[in-house]
Write a structure and sequence with these properties.
The chain is mostly helical. 52% of the residues lie in helices and 5% in strands.
Length: 445
């Protein structure tokens, strides 16, 4: 169950993220508060964590907040898009389903707070990992801290039109809507460090995430200022292309992915909690037919354009998600996305043969027949859009951004809603931040 009780952003900065790290470092109990008050040996303050042996716990706390906040973002954008249909009782969910995104007291509030906490703790983990780098029991903790921070910064840039980077009770000024693209630069800086320090899958993930961040930044430039479908929606960014090639070359397997994992020993995936357990959402009718309850998927209806029948990538994704129940993994980046980035770039350059080759490499990974534009009806762009839709299903912001840039709409959007009238619209700074941040209030001394 998710606690929907609001707390002030200031309180969250001073307690929420830090308590997560402290809980992972050591169990603590409340101090006595009486005439016989005695110092509790189990009490832990931040200074107790400021040593090399505590860095792993701090990094694990950063992972916990990063993985849940990114999943919250993935859930939220899926509801706005056609991936999920609202079936429950949450007001914020009904708003998103209708295409209303700009209510600061709605989903923006909870999502802002979650990502603000994750951002602060991942940066805190970096600070202490750097300070004690020479003495870390696990040298990869520093690389992990940078990786998680890069993911959180990229998620913020993907999902918010503006953001304030505060430090506990010290307010930070909003970046400004026109400057949000620079948050991708910060993400890449963090990922550069992760790539430099990391080994194995962690190093590969950093390279692939840099490709995705540069690709997303290029798309951001096409969708901003918000309000219109870009005349040329295809992304062809030289840096993203080079990084995607490098990532694919370094991947140990053809269908490699880097996922956030959830378990009974860590935490639930908010997507699994809201969809599989609470049944507040069901996969949208553009993808699947609900069963008689209207709460569960009965069968896949989105067909493969070449083979017919339920698309195999979508079927596998939904089956795995349902089986995971409270703990389905969340793919953050993978080989299929790298191929699709390169397919899109080739198509934008007029290199149809290369685009088709990349699309078919993705199709082979899901076990589908090869596509031939000379004999099959869909155009190369239509195939690209389909393969992105099914292979990146439930990955944060992928679908809603594709809907915006290709001029697609969801039947559930109200005709005057944000999603329908403000192409490219994402979440706004949350209400709690608006009433507590002195830069927004104009009250900084």
């Amino acid at each position: 169950m998710h606690n929907t009780t609001r707390r002030s952003t200031t309180q969250r900065r001073t307690s929420g993220a830090l308590k997560t790290a402290l809980a992972l470092a050591v169990a603590s109990t409340a101090a006595c508060d009486s005439l016989l008050d005695v110092e509790n040996p189990n009490n832990v303050v931040q200074e107790d964590l400021e040593n090399a042996t505590s860095v792993s716990a701090l990094v694990n706390g950063a992972l916990a907040l990063a993985s849940t906040s990114v999943a919250d973002a993935a859930l939220s954008t899926s509801v706005v898009s056609d991936e999920l249909e609202f079936t429950g009782s949450q007001n914020w969910a009904a708003e998103l389903n209708d295409g209303t995104i700009t209510n600061p007291a709605g989903r923006s509030d909870a999502l802002f707070n979650a990502l603000a906490e994750a951002r602060w703790l991942t940066d805190e983990a970096i600070k202490f990992a750097e300070e004690f780098a020479a003495d870390l029991p696990d040298a990869q903790d520093q690389a992990r801290a940078y990786l998680y921070s890069g993911i959180v910064y990229m998620t913020i840039a993907d999902n918010f039109e503006d953001f304030a980077f505060s430090d506990r009770t010290v307010d930070g000024p909003p970046v400004g809507e026109a400057n949000m693209h620079t948050v991708y630069d910060t993400a890449v800086e963090r990922l550069n460090q992760a790539e430099s320090l990391g080994t194995g899958d962690l190093k590969v993930a950093a390279t692939a995430l840099k490709a995705r961040a540069r690709w997303a930044q290029a798309l951001w430039n096409k969708l901003n200022p918000q309000g219109s479908v870009p005349a040329n929606p295809l992304v062809d960014d030289a840096t993203a292309n080079q990084l995607a090639e490098a990532a694919l070359a370094a991947m140990p397997t053809a269908d490699w992915t880097w996922d956030f994992a959830y378990s009974a020993n860590s935490q639930t995936n908010p997507q699994g909690s809201w969809i599989n357990s609470r049944q507040e959402f069901v996969v949208g009718p553009a993808y699947a037919q609900a069963d008689g309850t209207g709460k569960r998927v009965d069968h896949i209806t989105l067909e493969d354009p070449i083979d017919g029948g339920a698309d195999l990538a979508l079927q596998a994704k939904i089956d795995g998600f349902v089986t995971g129940f409270l703990y389905p993994s969340l793919t953050v980046v993978g080989a299929r996305e790298m191929h699709l980035i390169l397919a899109e770039a080739a198509l934008a350059q007029g290199n149809t043969a290369e685009a088709v080759s990349r699309i078919n490499q993705v199709r082979a990974l899901k076990g589908a027949s090869a596509y031939d534009p000379a004999t099959h009806t869909p155009s190369v762009e239509e195939m690209l859009r389909h393969e992105r839709r099914v292979n990146l299903f439930f990955q944060a912001t992928r679908r809603i951004w594709d809907m915006y840039r290709f001029g697609e709409t969801d039947a559930s959007w109200g005709p005057a809603s944000d999603a329908a009238t403000l192409t490219g619209q994402v979440f706004v700074i949350g209400q709690n931040e608006r009433v507590s941040n002195c830069y927004i209030l104009g009250s900084c001394s």
